[in-house]
Design a protein that fits this description.
This protein is mostly beta strands. The chain is built from no helices and 7 strands.
């Protein structure tokens, strides 16, 4: 898992084919990002505007942090 640079969110990756964005203040789930395979890695860009995830299906996806939509 990793924290956003502004400390607002943290990310988790999982074997259930998801990465999740959590509120770092109260621990509530903000968004679920779905892949076709296990998500092994996730990170925020330096400006926290995007999230990058890497998956066992050999894909890397780029997501908008606020909307959770694929870029």
């Amino acid at each position: 898992c990793c924290f956003s640079h502004d400390g607002k969110y943290f990310l988790t990756s999982s074997t259930d084919n998801t990465a999740r964005i959590w509120n770092a203040t109260d621990g509530t789930l903000v968004k679920t990002l779905r892949h076709e395979g296990e998500v092994f890695s996730c990170a925020f860009t330096l400006d926290d505007q995007l999230i990058v995830t890497a998956c066992s299906d050999n894909t890397v996806r780029i997501w908008d942090t606020e909307s959770g939509q694929l870029k």
